[in-house]
Design brief:
Elements (H helix, E strand, L loop, with lengths): L2 H17 L7 H6 L13 E5 L1 E2 L5 E5 L5 E14 L2 E10 L2 E6 L13 E3 L2 E4 L2 E5 L46
Antiparallel strand pairs: 1-9, 2-4, 3-4, 4-5, 5-6, 6-7, 8-9
Length: 177
């Protein structure tokens, strides 16, 4: 993890949310927007993991926040530790690549209750870069106008992941949980 690069990416994202016509925010929200909330960079949560692929790659229907479904392939699982606590997550494959939705123990107080997302980088073989510093809130965290997949039960952690985006909490937020 390069902290300077991460901070530059965050500034670019804030600028996109504030100014870009394709921002997930309405023009009214953009007028009040003063930046997303983030945890400080945490190099301990920038991981290279080995995923244990599932023998059978089942396709699952994941409910969305607006009542629809999206289809993902259950690809495999990996384990890691957070502040000495063991954790396990399932990695999914979508048409666009790999997808890692997760809910941590801070959900509802520190992080978005429906979960945060990552698109892990496949390093070849069964190795993946999982940098929780890049964890982001789905667009439905900012407004009910967006639809987002709801994190499956198997990816609800009992540990806090204090990296990436925090729960949005400001006057510009139409919906925060």
């Amino acid at each position: 993890m390069n902290a300077a690069h991460l901070l530059a990416q965050r500034r670019q994202k804030d600028d996109f949310f504030k100014r870009h016509p394709q921002s997930p925010l309405t023009p009214e929200q953009q007028g009040q927007f003063n930046g997303l909330r983030y945890y400080d960079p945490n190099p301990d949560l920038d991981l290279t993991v080995t995923v244990e692929p599932f023998a059978e790659k089942t396709r699952v229907q994941v409910q969305t926040t607006t009542g629809g479904v999206q289809i993902y392939e259950r690809y495999g699982q990996f384990t890691f530790t957070v502040e000495g606590e063991p954790a396990r997550l399932t990695l999914y494959r979508a048409d666009y690549g790999f997808f890692l939705p997760f809910v941590d123990a801070g959900a509802g107080t520190e992080t978005y209750p429906a979960g945060r997302y990552l698109e892990p980088e496949h390093l070849g073989g069964n190795r993946f870069l999982i940098d929780f510093n890049a964890a982001y809130n789905p667009y439905c965290a900012y407004s009910d106008a967006w639809t987002c997949p709801i994190t499956p039960a198997e990816n609800r952690l009992k540990v806090a992941i204090r990296a990436g985006e925090k729960l949005p909490d400001d006057v510009w937020v139409e919906h925060a949980g």
